[in-house]
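Notes to self, IS110 family transposase:
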Amino acid sequence: MNQYIGLDVSLKDTAISIRQGGRRVWRGKCPSDPKLLAQMIRKHAPHPKRVVFETGPLSTWFYHALTAEGLPAICIEARHAQKVLNETLNKTDANDADGLAQLAEANFYKVVRVKSFDSMLTRTLVAARNQLLGITTQLSNQIRGLMKTFGLIVPKGTGRVFDGNVRKLLDGNYSLAQILLPLLDAWRDIRKRAADLGHQLLAAARESEATKLLMTIPGVGAVTAVSYVAAIENPENFRTSRSVGAWLGLTTRRYQSGEVDYNSRISRRGDNHLRGLLYEAATVLLTRATTSIECSLRDWGLKLRERLGFKRAAVAVARKLAVIMHSMLKTGEVFNPSAGAPA
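result:
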C-alpha cells in the first residue's frame, strides 16, 4: 500500500510524518539533510507515493536532491498549506508535518514549479548585483548626509564625478577626511564589484538567444530579459501567454459574494523583482522610448494614461509586456512594433 509523507523543513531539523490507509503510521525527526531524509523515508515508507513539503529557503535544494534519490518529491504553495495547517489547535513542527501528510494523501494542494539550479544561478547573479548597487546608493547618501553637517554640500553627480567632488571638498579638512575617505574607498570598491557582476550579466545575455530576442522590445534591457528568461525557463510551463500576467501578480484581484462584486488592486503575487523590472520597462516605453518608430503598444499605453493615470497605465503595459514576451519565446519571433495593440 502506498505511503504519503509530509515534511516540515527547518534549517536544523525536519519533522517527518508518514500516513497509510487514512491513518498515521510513523512520525519522527531528522537532520535537514536530503540524503539522511531519503534514508529515513526508505526505512519507514518503502512505497512512497508523495513526499510533500512547503516552499521555503531550502525548497530548491530539497526538491532536486530528493528527486535525485528517486523519491516523488512535491513542493507545494506555503500560503495554501498554511490555511489548512492553521486549523490545528497546537502549532508544532510535528503537527505541521501531519497536516502536510494529510494534504498529500487527500491530493489537496497546489504544486509549485521548482526552478533548475541554472536558473537559480542566474537569479542569484541578478540579486547579488542589485544588492551591491543598493549598498553603493546607501553609502553615497550617507557620505552626503555626513558632509552636510559640516556645511559641505556635495554637488549632483555619480560615479567619478561624485568621487572627485567629495575629495575636493575634503581637501584641507584632515580630521573629517580621516572619517569619510574610508567610506568613499568602500563605495568605490563596491561599485567595482557591482560592475564586475554587471559584465557577467551582459555576457550571459549575449550568449542566450532567448535573451537577445526579448531585448528587441523597446525598454527591455539585459537585466529584465535575463531575469524573465530565468523565471519562465520553458515557455511550455504556461498553457497560455495570458496566464503569465496573473503568475507575476499583475492582474487585479476580484471579490464576489452575493450581490457584492468588485475588482481591487493587482494581486502582487509571484516574483517581486521581475514584476518591478517589467514596471520599469513599461515606464521607459511610455516616457523615454523614441517617437520616431511607431509602436502600437506604446500608443495604447499613452491612451490608457490619459484615461487612468500614469501608474495604472504602466501596470497595464507591464502586464502586456509579460504576455508578449512569453509569446515571443514560444514562437521565436522578434518584437513587431507595428502589431495591433492587445485588447
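- The radius of gyration is 26 Å.
- Residues 3-106 form a domain with the Nucleotidyltransferase; domain 5 fold (CATH 3.30.420.40).
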